[in-house]
Amino acid sequence: MTTLRAIAGTLAMAGAWGTVAMAIYKAALHRVDWNLIPASAMPRVRWWSTHASCLLRVSLALAGLGLALLGLTNLTAI
């Protein structure tokens, strides 16, 4: 059961960090001055801005899955 607990913890942490990163990025997109972004970086900014919502949902799902697995391992340990 310790392997499952380690995997669950890793999933929960990766999901939590991804959720925090995407939430910060989405908040920054609302406050960005688009004239200050170099033209060479704009394709990357556009890609991230179109995919940020999807990545946020995936991160939330990973965090939820990790937390559910952690709860399951704690229930079976009793």
Give the helix/strand layout.
Blueprint: H1 2-31, H2 42-77
Helix pairs in contact: 1-2
Task: Please characterize this protein's 3D structure.
- The structure is a single chain.
- By secondary structure, the protein is mainly α.
- Helix content is 85%, strand content 0%.
- The chain has 2 helices and no strands.
- The model has no long low-confidence stretch (mean pLDDT 92).
Unreliable sequence segments = none
Give the overall shape: rod-shaped
What's the helix-strand series? HH
Helix content: over 70%
Rounded to the nearest angstrom, the radius of gyration is 17 Å
Mean pLDDT across the residues is 92
Oligomer: single chain
% residues in beta strands: under 5%
Structural class: mainly alpha
> Helical stretch count?
2
- What is the terminal separation in angstroms? 12 Å
**How does the major sheet shape up?**
none
DSSP, total strands? 0
Please describe the structure with a list of short key phrases separated by commas or semicolons.
mainly alpha, 85% helix, single chain, 78 residues, 2 helices
Quick overview of this protein structure:
This protein has 2 helices and no strands.
